[in-house]
Amino acid sequence: MKVLCSLMLLLGAAGLSAATADGRHKLVIIAGKPSHPAGMHEFRAGSMILQRCLAEVGGLVVERHDMGWVKDEATLADADAVVIYADGGKGHPALQGDHLKTLEAMIARGVGFGCMHYGVEVPADQGGEQFKRWIGGHYEHAFSCNPIWEPQFREFPNHPITHGVKPFQISDEWYINMRFAPAFGDGIKPAQQGGNEFVPILVATPPDATRDGPYVYPKGPYPHIQEQKGQPEAVLWSLQRADGGRGFGFTGGHFHKNWANDDFRRCILNALVWVTGIEVPADGIASQLQPGEIERNLDPKPASKPKAKGKTALVPRVFQRGESQ
Fold it and tell me: Cα Rg for the chain, rounded, in angstroms?
């Protein structure tokens, strides 16, 4: 509690415009603990790629913290944005200890906040209302679902996150049917409420077979998901908050190899810069992976089981949705 109170004082003193001692904007990326078989949920390795790709962005400093939280919360005092790439549910890093209160205090002063992949999931009664306010919506167990499918992203809104992004198609565990704030409806159209501006960024329509399942967990199908055949889904969205802060949710990022896709990667690099409050260049954040970079820094964990011929590969979770880590 003493640490939390000290942090509150630091956050209050920082005001609405945080900056490091040298005047740069600061992004804090929190990578979750190891989970899932090799090549999946590589939060640390994926965050390291993103951090390295952002190293040349002027006016930006990026801190990466592993294992689900920062080592010293004092580092959050001058943060302009916090992005969590980790497992979610009841084990979500934001829900441990006093973390939700810490984030609430930061966001109240206009700090940006983003969540990626499983990190967009929190229980409806524990973090759900906050996530609707902070990033516009969240994954809700048994309401949302998590199939593996390969959408084509052909058209993009006029938004800084889409700068320089070209049409692409990629297979991932793209979550669908998010629980958005009521004012944002099903999340596929831009919407405004009380000074908050919601914009869906990556939108695609799942094939009927995708809605029929199986989903990764539970395998489904869910009747309410099947009833929405033909409905587009937002799998990356942004929120310009009335307090001046920004938020985004991204449901992809399950397969580590996808960071090798230039447009997949550019879209998220743009989102990381935008949520921190920095102007995104007209051509977006350009980057190239170094030789062998996608294979480096992977967590030590067992390899995934090969997919049986004619079967859909379902990825077992280290802990089931709704359970703690």
Answer: 19
CATH architecture assignment, domain 2-287: 3-Layer(aba) Sandwich (3.40)
Would you place residue 23 in the very low, low, confident or very high pLDDT band (cuts 50, 70, 90)?
A: confident
Rounded to 5, what percent of the chain is helix, strand, coil? 30, 20, 50
Among 17, 170, 3, 165, smallest CA distance to 79 is for 17
The CA-atom distances, in angstroms, between 46 and each of 50, 168, 257 are 6, 20, 9
Report the distance separating Cα 161 and Cα 275, nearest Å: 9
- Six-digit token string for 163: 């700068």
Average pLDDT in the 247-265 region?
98
Is the backbone peptide bond immediately before 214 cis, with ω within 30 degrees of 0?
Answer: yes
Expressed in angstroms, the distance from the first to the final Cα of the chain is 23
Mean pLDDT for 208-226 is 97
Cβ burial of 133 (10 Å; 0-12, 13-18, 19+) is middle
Q: Where are the domains of the chain?
A: 2-287
Peptide bond into 218 cis (omega under 30): yes
Name the token pair of 239: 């929120």
The confidence band for 116, taking pLDDT boundaries of 50, 70 and 90, is very high
- Are the C-beta atoms of 200 and 177 separated by less than 8 Å? no
Q: Is 66 helix (H, G, I), strand (E, B) or coil?
A: coil
Give the integer Cα–Cα distance in Å for 54 and 62.
7
